[in-house]
Amino acid sequence: MLKLNDFKNNSNEDNLGIILFIIGIIFLLITTYTGLTKIGLWYDELYSIAFAQLPISDMLFIGPKDVHPILYYLIFKSFTKILTFLDIGVVGKIVSLIPIYLIGILSMTKVKKNFGYLTAGLFFLCITSMPQLMIYSVEVRMYSWGLFFVTASLIYSYEIIKNNSNLKNWAILTILTIGSAYTHYFSAVGSFSIYVLLFIYLFKNNKEQLKYWFLSAVISVIVFLPWTLIVLNQMATYESGYWINPITLNTLISYVYFVLSPATFFIQANELVSPTILGSIFLLMFLYLIYKVRDKFAIASIAAFIMVPIIGALLSLAVQPCFHHRFLIPSLGCLWLGFSILLAKMYENKKLFYIILCFILIIGVIGCVNFINIQTQDSTDTEIEMNSLNKVVGNGNVMIVDFFPIFFELRGYLLPNNHYLSFNEDIGMHVKEVINDPGIQSEIAGGSKVYYIDGGYENIDEVRAQGINLEEIGFNQPLKNNSFKIYKINI
């Protein structure tokens, strides 16, 4: 780990690495402070928060119906039990930040040991400041955990290459791979890419180790088998269509600039990132470093990253669109480790090295300013919508919802402390039954109001056909992609 007397004992190159690591810490502290004080949440994050509040039995029942594996939600759940004194939105941000701190520890231990202080410092600086990574460090979703599992897998694959007979490293790689697969399907693809490249290396250079490769791969597959049937069911469920748009050339170009351009907005749905001058310069720098240095492990690391969007795009073209920009996040550690190794090897050409380093710092500072602005606006929007909802609806009322995700987010965070019921078919009939229910009648007699939430399925006519009088209630709704309407049922 980093020690105070390292400056005295190390070379200028090593000292620069330490300085860059410290700058990375500063970026991470800014991210942490902003993330924990500007609690802006959107549709998917609200889902995570609501899901983490469920009893374990309900999580295991509902989880297989989601489009992601369940490990992240279980991690989040465990922290809600520990940090009971904090707002659950803050807990969610903390859970997402933890993997970035873990990568910092790996940077100053394993990365420093194998590649030196300069690579370690560059790598941690990139992890904490490069485009999108600040945003996803506090996103209340599974992406930062996927980033940790895939990045750690790559680092331990190098440990395996260096230490042939160390079974401990194989065991750790296997555990990390299983964690990756149970966190996100495209972090599993990232791990798969690492295994493919590791197999190629061992086949060419150390066939004796292939038996451990096969054993690790088989164990990983066997442990993931219980979830395989669930994956197939999830695929069947979404065969008829998914919200992701078809992959086009513009989408592929957008992937490049998503990774290399400072983020000016948060991509929620099918928005594309336009080419930028900074992103184009960065791309040219990448290509130059690969051409000039040609370090095999660095290039393999970058290849492991590139394989993810290639596989995602091919699956999207062959089956149905299933790859989104944010699915790149878990494998970004591979890209930035490869880049850091290449740049560190350019240190002797100090003029070029410092030009590229200054460019990285500029990208990081611009991204940091944009990140703060995005988080501040999201926090304001969330606060406005929560306050408005609580003002017009309040507590202790009966809420009938026709769309489960809206039911989930209102009950879980935006508008808690109400009696919620959710139905996805025969809405008019169910609303009438609820109103006539003796228990609900008792609540109404006690002062409760009854509201119908239309989550976008346009069931209003069906409800009104039951002779139910609906009065639309206006409220401030700045949260993007979170459209629903509230109707008061006049009894």
TrEMBL record:
<feature type="transmembrane region" description="Helical">
    <location>
        <begin position="16"/>
        <end position="34"/>
    </location>
</feature>
<dbReference type="GO" id="GO:0008610">
    <property type="term" value="P:lipid biosynthetic process"/>
</dbReference>
<feature type="transmembrane region" description="Helical">
    <location>
        <begin position="352"/>
        <end position="372"/>
    </location>
</feature>
<keyword id="KW-0808">Transferase</keyword>
<feature type="transmembrane region" description="Helical">
    <location>
        <begin position="272"/>
        <end position="290"/>
    </location>
</feature>
<dbReference type="GO" id="GO:0005886">
    <property type="term" value="C:plasma membrane"/>
</dbReference>
<keyword id="KW-0472">Membrane</keyword>
<feature type="transmembrane region" description="Helical">
    <location>
        <begin position="297"/>
        <end position="319"/>
    </location>
</feature>
<protein>
    <recommendedName>
        <fullName>Glycosyltransferase RgtA/B/C/D-like domain-containing protein</fullName>
    </recommendedName>
</protein>
<dbReference type="GO" id="GO:0016763">
    <property type="term" value="F:pentosyltransferase activity"/>
</dbReference>
<feature type="transmembrane region" description="Helical">
    <location>
        <begin position="170"/>
        <end position="200"/>
    </location>
</feature>
<dbReference type="InterPro" id="IPR050297">
    <property type="entry name" value="LipidA_mod_glycosyltrf_83"/>
</dbReference>
<feature type="transmembrane region" description="Helical">
    <location>
        <begin position="82"/>
        <end position="103"/>
    </location>
</feature>
<keyword id="KW-1133">Transmembrane helix</keyword>
<feature type="transmembrane region" description="Helical">
    <location>
        <begin position="325"/>
        <end position="345"/>
    </location>
</feature>
<feature type="transmembrane region" description="Helical">
    <location>
        <begin position="115"/>
        <end position="136"/>
    </location>
</feature>
<feature type="transmembrane region" description="Helical">
    <location>
        <begin position="242"/>
        <end position="260"/>
    </location>
</feature>
<keyword id="KW-1003">Cell membrane</keyword>
<feature type="transmembrane region" description="Helical">
    <location>
        <begin position="212"/>
        <end position="230"/>
    </location>
</feature>
<keyword id="KW-0328">Glycosyltransferase</keyword>
<keyword id="KW-0812">Transmembrane</keyword>
<feature type="transmembrane region" description="Helical">
    <location>
        <begin position="142"/>
        <end position="158"/>
    </location>
</feature>
